[in-house]
Write a structure and sequence with these properties.
It is found in: Nucleus. Its main location: nucleus. Keywords: mRNA processing, mRNA splicing, Nucleus, Spliceosome. InterPro entries: SPF27. Pfam families: BCAS2. The chain has four helices and no strands. With 252 residues, the chain is mainly α. The longest helix is centred in the middle third of the chain and has 113 residues. The radius of gyration is 45 Å and the shape is rod-shaped.
Length: 252
C-alpha cells in the first residue's frame, strides 16, 4: 500500500495533541532558506515570550495516562504516599532474631526462662534452615543460575530481534517516503517550470497586444472623421451581435 505524501486537505485528521497544527510539508524536497529559518525562529521566540505556559502545563495537552493498577491496593497506595512525603522506609525489626536471657529482674521467673528457651529453639531452627538453604544453593545454585542466565539471554535476543525489525520497518518507510517525495519533487519542478514559462509567454503576448492596440489607436487618429465614425458603428454592431449570441447560448 502506497504511503501518502501528505495529509489530505479537507478531511478530519486526529493528532496526538489537542489543537495542534497539522503539518503537510514534504521535508525531503521542501527547501528552507536562511531567511525563512530566521523568520521561523523569530516566531518561535515571540510565542515563547508571550506564552504564560509553564513546562508542566504542556503535559495537559497529551492524552491521559492509562488507569493505574496501583489504585485499590492499600499497601501500594500507602507506600506511594510515604515516598511522596519523603519519609524514610521503616527499618526491619531484628530484635526477634536476638538470643537474649531474661532480664535481671526475671532471672528467677520460670515463665521468662521458658520463653527465652523457646526463642533459642526457634533461632536454632532458623539457623538449621539457613544451613539447608546454603547446602541446596551450593548443590543446585550454579545450574539454576546458569539456566536463569540462558533465559535472560533468550529474552534479550527476542527484544533485540524486535528492535531490529522495528528499525528495519522505520528505514523502509523513510526510504519509501524519500523516493516518493523525490519523484513528486521532480514532477513539481517540471510543473513549476511550465507555469513560469506560460506566465512569461502571457506577459509577452500582453505586451504585444498593448503595442498593437497603440498602433491601431494611432491609425484611427490618422483617419478622417467620417471613417472613424463608420469604424465605431461597425465595432458597436459587432459588440451587439456578440451580446445577442451570448444571450442565445445562455437560453439554450
Amino acid at each position: 500500500m502506497a504511503v501518502p505524501l501528505a495529509l489530505t486537505h479537507g478531511e478530519d485528521q486526529k493528532g496526538w495533541r489537542r489543537n495542534q497544527h497539522l503539518v503537510d510539508s514534504l521535508p525531503y524536497i521542501d527547501s528552507l532558506t536562511p531567511a525563512e529559518k530566521r523568520a521561523v525562529d523569530q516566531l518561535i521566540e515571540e510565542e515563547m515570550r508571550s506564552s504564560s505556559k509553564r513546562p508542566s502545563d504542556y503535559l495537559g495537552d497529551l492524552e491521559p495516562l492509562p488507569e493505574s493498577r496501583i489504585a485499590g491496593n492499600e499497601l501500594l497506595e500507602k507506600e506511594m504516599a510515604r515516598a511522596a512525603a519523603g519519609e524514610a522506609m521503616q527499618a526491619m525489626d531484628t530484635f526477634r532474631y536476638n538470643l537474649e536471657p531474661p532480664q535481671p529482674s526475671k532471672r528467677n521467673d520460670v515463665a521468662a526462662w521458658r520463653a527465652a528457651l523457646d526463642n533459642a529453639y526457634a533461632q536454632l531452627e532458623h539457623q538449621y534452615n539457613r544451613l539447608l538453604n546454603l547446602e541446596l544453593l551450593l548443590k543446585f545454585g550454579p545450574d539454576a543460575w546458569r539456566a536463569h542466565n540462558e533465559q535472560l539471554a533468550a529474552f534479550v535476543a527476542r527484544l533485540q530481534a524486535q528492535l531490529a525489525d522495528v528499525r528495519r520497518r522505520v528505514d523502509d518507510l523513510n526510504r519509501e517516503r524519500k523516493l516518493q517525495q523525490h519523484a513528486a519533487g521532480a514532477e513539481l519542478g517540471q510543473l513549476e517550470a511550465e507555469y513560469l514559462g506560460l506566465v512569461h509567454k502571457n506577459a509577452e503576448i500582453e505586451g504585444a497586444c498593448r503595442g498593437l492596440e497603440a498602433e491601431v489607436a494611432a491609425m484611427r487618429d490618422a483617419l478622417p472623421a467620417e471613417l472613424q465614425q463608420k469604424l465605431e458603428q461597425q465595432q458597436q454592431r459587432r459588440e451587439e451581435a456578440d451580446a445577442e449570441a451570448e444571450a442565445d447560448l445562455m437560453q439554450v
